Amino acid sequence: MGWEQDLGEADRMWRTYIEMSKHLGSHLQQHVQRDYELSAADFEVLVRLAESADRRMPVAQLAAATQWEKSRLSHQLTRMAQRGLVERVDSDHRRYPDVLLTDKGHAAINKAVPAHTEMVHALFIDVLGPERLASFAEACADVLRALDLHREQDCSL
After folding, report:
1. What pLDDT score was predicted for residue 152?
2. What is the pTM of this model?
3. Rounded to whole angstroms, what are the CA distances from 142 to 2, 15, 128, 154?
4. Which residue among 17, 31, 49, 132 is the one 20 to 30 A from 100 at the CA level?
C-alpha cells in the first residue's frame, strides 16, 4: 500500500486547502499582472506602502512585513524604482533609507485594488459566507499564533 492510500481525512483537508490556496493565489496574480501590469511582488509592496503612514516605510520594516530576505527586497525595489513606482529616500533617524510610494505607484495600486478586492469577494469571501469566513479567520489566527510560537522556539535553539 502506497503512502497515497494512507491519507486520512485531515490530510485530505490539508491537501484541499493547499490546492485552493495555490490556485486562488495564482488566479488573482494572473489578473493583476494581465490587467494592471503588476506582479504579485509589486502588488504586495505597493499595498504595504499605501497602507503605511505618509506612504513610506523603513526598508527593514518592509522586509519584516513581506518576510522577504533583504536581497530579494532590494532587487524588487530596484525594479519598481526603475518603473517609477517607488523610490528610496533618506531617513532622518535611521542608517538605511525609507521606501516611498510615488504618485505613479499610488495611482497604480489605487487602480488595481478595487478590481482585485471584487475578485477576492467573488471567489473567496462570498463563497464562504459570513459564518464560515469567521470560522476560517479564527482558525487562521490560531495557526498564525502556533507558527509564531514555533518560530520563537526555533530562534531559542
Report:
1. 86
2. 0.84
3. 32, 19, 19, 18
4. 31
Residues, the chain, total? 157
Is residue 28 within 8 A of residue 44, CB to CB? The reply is: no
The C-alpha cell that represents 125 in the structure block: 469571501
In 69-110, beta strands by DSSP E = 86-89, 98-101
CB count, 10 Å around CB of 84? Answer: 12
CB 84 within 8 A of CB 104: yes
Give the model's pLDDT for residue 3.
52
Whose cell is 471567489? That residue is: 123
Whether residue 31 contacts residue 76, with contact meaning beta carbons closer than 8 Å, is answered with no
SS3 annotation, 122-136: HHHHHHHHHHHHHHH
3-state secondary structure string across 83-124: CCCEEEECCCCCCCCEEEECHHHHHHHHHHHHHHHHHHHHHH
Q: What is the mean pLDDT of each run of 10 residues along the chain (157 residues)?
A: 67 94 96 96 97 92 92 96 95 83 97 97 97 96 94 80
